[in-house]
From TrEMBL:
Major localization listed first in the record, in broad terms: cytoplasm
PANTHER family: ORGANIC HYDROPEROXIDE RESISTANCE TRANSCRIPTIONAL REGULATOR, TRANSCRIPTIONAL REGULATOR, MARR FAMILY
Domain of life (superkingdom): Bacteria
Keyword DNA-binding in annotation: yes
Name of the protein this chain belongs to: HTH marR-type domain-containing protein
SUPFAM superfamilies, A to Z: Winged helix' DNA-binding domain
Organism: Paraburkholderia haematera
Database matches in Pfam families: Staph_reg_Sar_Rot
Residue intervals of the HTH marR-type domain: 15-150
Disulfide bond found in the keyword field: no
InterPro entries associated with the record: HTH_MarR-typ, MarR/SlyA-like, Transc_reg_Sar_Rot_HTH, WH-like_DNA-bd_sf, WH_DNA-bd_sf
Keyword set, alphabetical order: Cytoplasm, DNA-binding, Transcription, Transcription regulation
Organism placement in taxonomy: Bacteria, Pseudomonadati, Pseudomonadota, Betaproteobacteria, Burkholderiales
């Protein structure tokens, strides 16, 4: 057996990397969501921001950023754009002027009627049990990676 054949068997292929599987699945989700987002006139990040506000309205920018895993310098332009579109408003917290609260407008709440009926559960091709298990596994993976990075810092 020559060295090239040995290297071919021991060198991992791109498809063997979990990070690539997650990355390419994310790209596939983006393509699958594109028609839905185009209809709503939103980017994916704007969409998940609105979903987080449907879940809990009147959040601080910091709390919303933590929930979405976004830094303030990434989230603020998204919020400004959504505010310009009439979907949310920002105001200083009267009890703590350092905090900015984010709330949905009526238009932002009405997006829910359009947006939630357009999920991609069926497109995933998973049973209800598989879907829940995959979602929980990916969330665990994310949390473990965040923890590992924090432990190195």
């Amino acid at each position: 057996m020559n060295t090239i054949e040995t290297a071919d068997r021991t060198t991992p292929k791109l498809a063997d990397f979990l990070c690539f599987a997650v990355y390419s699945a994310n790209l596939a989700f983006g393509k699958a969501y594109k028609p839905i987002l185009d209809e709503l006139g939103l980017t994916y990040t704007q969409y998940i921001t609105i979903i987080a506000l449907w879940e809990e309205d009147n959040q601080t920018v910091g709390g919303l950023g933590e929930k979405l895993f976004l830094e303030s310098n990434t989230l603020t332009p998204i919020l400004k754009k959504l505010e310009a579109m009439g979907y949310l408003y920002r105001q200083r917290d009267p009890s703590d002027e350092r905090q900015v609260l984010v709330s949905l407008t009526k238009s932002g709440r009405r997006l829910r009627e359009k947006g939630l009926g357009m999920d991609l559960v069926d497109a995933c091709g998973l049973t209800t049990q598989e879907f829940g298990k995959v979602q929980k596994t990916i969330a665990t993976l994310r949390n473990n990676l965040i923890k590992a990075v924090q432990e190195r810092e």
